[in-house]
Amino acid sequence: MLTYSVQKVGYAFEQLDPQGATDYASFMQAFDAFPWAAQHAEWDDTQDGPLPALVLQHADDRRELWVTALSDAHADGFQLNAVSMRMKKGLFGIGKGKLEQHVDTIDVRKRTDVDTLCRLFCDRQYDELDRAVAQHVERNRFEDGSDD
User: What average pLDDT does this structure show over 11-36?
Assistant: First the structure.
């Protein structure tokens, strides 16, 4: 089941307020209504803890998509964390691998890209989502001029 949670300024990094079941349209409505400017003003005062985020969750699939508007819901500038489980190979590729949490953090300029990523997540189109996230990771790396 698709659900979402809210993380506000002042919360511990793992603290979330569950909001219950959702769908794409309802989540985007909540995203638009969230008090991004007020939350960022509060964070600017404290500069401690996590930035505010809305978190899409598919618990059965062990997937999450954390979405933060860096100013407001309609301005350019967003940060997303795509959380998935991936198999990590054993030492030297020998032995049984183990499932570990993997997080890709991406900066996204345009709201339309955020809408697309959220739609892919809500529709469980994970292969396409992972490809889109990987493209953003590469774009961010190129724009930052880093090779890591």
Answer: 97
How many separate domains does the chain show? 1
Residue-level pLDDT at 1: 95
Instruction: Decide if 83 contacts 102 (C-beta within 8 A).
Output: yes
Name, in order, each residue with C-beta under 8 angstroms of 86's C-beta and a sequence gap of 6 or more: 99, 100, 102
Residue 26 sits at the vertex; the CA angle it makes with 73 and 68, to the nearest 5 degrees, is 30
**pLDDT per residue as tens digits for the range 85-110:** 887 777 666 777 788 889 999 999 99
> What is the DSSP pairing of strand 2-7 with strand 53-58?
antiparallel
CA–CA distance, 42 with 48 (Å, rounded to integer): 10
Whether residue 42 contacts residue 10, with contact meaning beta carbons closer than 8 Å, is answered with: yes
Residue type, 54: L
pTM (2 d.p.): 0.88
- Report which residue type is found at 144: D
Specify whether the CB–CB gap between 50 and 39 falls below 8 A: no
Domain encompassing residue 127: 2-144
DSSP 130-144: HHHHHHHHHHHHHHH
